[in-house]
Amino acid sequence: MKIVLTGSTGFAGAEILSQCIAHNYIEHVYVLTRRPLDARFSHKKVTQILHEDFETYPEDLLQRLRDEGVEACIWALGGKTKDLKSLDNSRKVNVNFVAAAAEAFAKGLAPALGPYPGYPGKEPKPGVGRFPFRFVYVSAWGAEHNQFRKLWVGDDDRKLKGAAEKAIFATADESEEKEGHRCFEAIALRPGGILAGSSEAMGTIITQAIIPSVTSGQLASMAIRTAFSGGKDGKRILENKDLLGDDWAMVNSLN
């Protein structure tokens, strides 16, 4: 698989990129970034594309990604309102950027793919492009679609994440059809706190039992799995508990 990745200079995005590089079935990663990546990400599987305006996707960029056969996007770019200049700037980064990319990829990349023999019941054979194009959005726990609802905690951030989710889902619902199937699919991942370290560490297990949280490794693993196979059990939104993976389910089964 060939994917587009954003947010790779951030904590979660860097882990996603590391796992993409190590993944046997990811052939190449096209990183859209405003500033060059750390030297540790210099790798034959990684192409950096310096991209200044995340609200605009010129045709030459889309043509390049089409020609390369890109099949999915993992969107890890974003930030909390308190860390950005203003609420307007936060809306630009957390909603406008996401919506613009989803629309551009749905119209400019997804129609280049088509159902492969045996779709959707079978996986494609090696070398055959995956269908549909999947847009995997790293959202946040508690994302709220209702922009008029009163929230006591994290009002702005939760509503902005919710607005972005609504935008990408609408784009998916309106995307072109190929042989009766939409060519663009959007899935939102809703992690709570993102933890460093091993998912097997006792401190991590205790934290995850108390508050919604995942390790960066768990989040990255699920983001990549979702890019390949879609939402777990066909879900469009994967909540924090869905991101914890099979190991956590095994721990719970011991009770």
UniProtKB/TrEMBL annotation:
Database matches in SUPFAM superfamilies: NAD(P)-binding Rossmann-fold domains (SSF51735)
UniProt cross-references to InterPro entries, sorted A to Z: NAD(P)-bd_dom_sf (IPR036291)
Protein name, UniProt field: NAD(P)-binding domain-containing protein
